[in-house]
Every structure is written in structure tokens, then in C-alpha cells.
Amino acid sequence: MKKYCFGIDIGGTTVKCGFFNTEGDLLEKWEIPTRTEENGSRILPDIAQTINDKIAERGLDKAEIEGIGIDVPGPVHEDGHVDFAVNLHWGVVDIVGEMEKLTGIRTKALNDANAAALGECWKGGGAGYHNLIMVTLGTGIGGGIVINDKVIAGAHGAGGEIGHGHATEELTEPCNCGNVGCLEQVASATGIVRLAKMRLGKDDKPSVLRGKNFSAKDIWDAVKAGDEVADEIAEKFGFYLGRELSIYTVVSDPQLIVIGGGMSKAGTVVLDYIQKYYRQYAFAACKEVEFALATLGNDAGIYGAAKVVL
After folding, report:
1. What is the mean predicted confidence (pLDDT) over 131-144?
2. Are 273 and 263 within 8 A, CB to CB?
3. Distance separating alpha carbons of residues 40 and 23, to the nearest angstrom
4. What is the per-residue pLDDT for 1?
């Protein structure tokens, strides 16, 4: 009888590992280093080793394991291979084929942002909902779309790449993806810092942000403190992200939008600015979509990876 599964979240620095029962309870979690040298050739063998070791440590039979779910920072095809994952130094890698050969356990793979969305839908801020959009606001912007409890990955594994929708004509420098004017450039943690620098350069209006090397957290702290310039920056951020989300909801018609990632730690104030502009631009039938903060934090990926094999 199948009793357990593994959820694996591969990051550029560490691999987060979760051991779950088939009811979705996280029984244990741990990390191993992501060894990206030699074109990342050691990453999957290292994961297979830690899984095999955990099974042996717990005295389990592999017949008790439902499967291994693995998420990676890059587009994942339906058959479980990636064409590239820059942060892992991977070119084409058959994740599913290699892991099944190394462990003898059924494996599924998906994009990391999609895994976070599935995890939040299952056990986090979106628990109880079956249709949602997840947005992760970190150094970049990740996203995932869940419809009827299934992640929409699309034909090329790029479904839910919200951060790379076109958002503005104001920029000239390229995004990391090569395009110019992506949402990620104006609404991620680095994006809101860019907006702040642009705003501060327009005039000499007083602000606590002037004359310091500030972060996204500093901007939101200034917003909470009533800084007028910081408020203007947050309005611009909310405009870009709220308007972009109105486009995604008219396509996917979710019940809920979950906001996660490092910037979500600023709290509901972030939602306030996004919702204001979302409701202004959203199609009538989608205008009252609910908003919530993510709750699983860094564990969202391992939960989503586990869910995909259950």
C-alpha cells in the first residue's frame, strides 16, 4: 500500500526536500546543497541519494512510496524534461527518466512557480479553492495558474510566466529574458527599487528613501510610515501589477489571487495597492476575485511537488 511521497524543490543554492504521507502531512524536511558544477550533472544523483538514504533510514520499502515530485527553476515539458535551467547550469535534462532510473520510483516534474501555486492551493493561502493565480514577488516574478486543481503548464512549460508579460513602454534596458518592459522589471523586488529610483530622480520632494541604498522592504516600511514619495512608488507598482493581473484573470477566471514571495512579507498593504488597480481594470465578471497572502513561505514548492504525484 502506498503511504508516502517526496516533494523536492530545486533551488540555485539548496535543494529543499520534504517527506510526506499521502494525506499531505509534512513528516520531515531537510536540505542538501545544489551542486551546480559540471553543468549541474550531480544534482539529480544527489537527490536520488538523499531519497534512497531517507527510505533506508526509516526502514521503508520502496513499494510504500507513491512517488517523487520535483520542481525546478525553468520551463518543464509535460514529459518531465527541461530544455534549459540557467540557474542550475542545465541544458536539456530528462528529470523524470533520470530520477526513475536512479531510484526506481515514479517521478513527476514541474516548474518551481507552478509548484508553489499548487502547494498554496492545496495546503496554503488558497486552501479550499480550486481555481487560482499565484504570484511570487521576489528578485523576479514567478507565477502559476491552477484550474480545477491542476497546474496549467501549457505547450512549452511556460504557462503562468506572469513576470514576462509586457507591462510598460517606459524602460529601455532589457529584462533577463531578453525582452524590454516586462512586468518583472517594474513589480518585482528589484522592479519596485527601479521605480523608486526613477521617481526620486524626478524632483527633490522629501523622502526617507533619499540618500540611502534602499531595498524593497525599505520602500514598504516607508509606505507604512506615511512617506508621500513611497506612496507614489507603491501606487505605480500597484498599477502595473493590478492591470496585468486583470488580463490574466479574464483568461483563466480564478476564484482567488495569492500573492507570495519575499515582498509579500510586507503584509496586506501590498494587496491594497494591487487590488485598487486590479478592480479598476478587471472585466466585470472577474472584478470581485478575492486576494490573499501566501502562507507556506519557502515550503510551498515541496508541498506542490508532493501534490503533483498524489
Report:
1. 93
2. no
3. 33
4. 81
| Residues in contact with 228: Cβ distance below 8 Å, sequence separation at least 6, in sequence order | 205, 207
C-alpha cell at 308: 503533483
Quick one: cell of 93?
535534462
Mean pLDDT computed over 220-224:
98
Residue 155: the pLDDT is 85
The total of other beta-carbon atoms located within 10 Å of residue 91's CB is: 12
Count of beta carbons in the 10 Å neighbourhood of residue 134: 34
C-alpha of 3 from chain center:
28
> Which pLDDT score, from 0 to 100, does residue 139 have?
87
Can you spell out the DSSP letters for 28-88?
Answer: EEEEEE---HHHHTTHHHHHHHHHHHHHHHTT--GGGEEEEEEEESS---TTSEES-BGGG
**What pLDDT does 2 receive?**
92
- Average pLDDT across the chain, whole number: 95
Q: What DSSP line would sit under the chain, residue for residue?
A: ---EEEEEEE-SSEEEEEEEETT--EEEEEEEE---HHHHTTHHHHHHHHHHHHHHHTT--GGGEEEEEEEESS---TTSEES-BGGGTBSSEEHHHHHHHHHSS-EEEEEHHHHHHHHHHHHSTTTT-SSEEEEEESSSEEEEEEETTEE---TTS-TT-GGGSB--SS--SBPTTS-BSBTHHHHSHHHHHHHHHHHHTT-----TTTTS---HHHHHHHHHTT-HHHHHHHHHHHHHHHHHHHHHHHHH--SEEEEESGGGGG-HHHHHHHHHHHHHHS-GGGTT-EEEE--SGGGHHHHHHHHHH-
Look up residue 276 and give its amino acid.
K
